[in-house]
Q: What sequence folds into this?
């Protein structure tokens, strides 16, 4: 009985070290996935800018945006059928089964965000769209403070301030470049 007690602490130590390694690995994988997602997003924004501003110059931007939404809807519909449980749920409860006011408002906000971001990319640039996306960080932070009652720590406040200063500097430099075409 005493030997069992001696091996249990050692086993717990090995297990906690293994758990730490697993957590570290999961964090590394999460960081890599986030970086890949950001690279895909950036590449998509650059390609979107080229499509909206350069391809088929006589075609109105609204039609080009419609093409993008049509393609996005087609991808969503096709990927729905990859999991049989999705098809069964849709057949039993309909496409909007389980939707409530929060889901509808979330969908509406995300669609309006996609429309606004595409419009900024179409009429200005992909970089301007990325810089304006900084406001998402600020909005989420304010939501956390005012809605959930969480306090921001000093590094978070510093990073938010740095994002705002970066955005302001970008806008001012962009304005200077437009006002002086020699630059």
A:
């Amino acid at each position: 009985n005493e030997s069992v007690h001696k091996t249990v602490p050692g086993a717990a130590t090995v297990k906690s070290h293994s758990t730490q390694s697993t957590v570290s690995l999961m964090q590394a994988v999460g960081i890599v996935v986030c970086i890949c997602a950001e690279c895909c997003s950036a590449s998509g924004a650059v390609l979107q800018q080229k499509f909206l501003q350069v391809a088929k110059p006589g075609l109105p931007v609204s039609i080009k945006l419609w093409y993008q939404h049509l393609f996005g809807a087609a991808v969503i519909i096709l990927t729905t059928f990859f999991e049989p449980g999705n098809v069964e749920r849709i057949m039993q409860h309909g496409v909007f089964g389980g939707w409530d006011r929060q889901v509808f408002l979330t969908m509406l906000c995300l669609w309006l965000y996609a429309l606004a971001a595409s419009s900024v990319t179409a009429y200005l640039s992909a970089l301007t769209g990325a810089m304006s996306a900084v406001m998402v960080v600020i909005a989420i932070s304010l939501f956390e403070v005012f809605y959930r009652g969480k306090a921001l720590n000093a590094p978070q406040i510093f990073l938010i301030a740095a994002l705002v200063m970066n955005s302001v500097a970008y806008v001012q430099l962009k304005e200077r470049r437009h006002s002086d075409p020699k630059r």
Remarks:
- The two ends are 81 Å apart (CA to CA).
- Residues 1-7 have pLDDT under 50 and may be disordered.
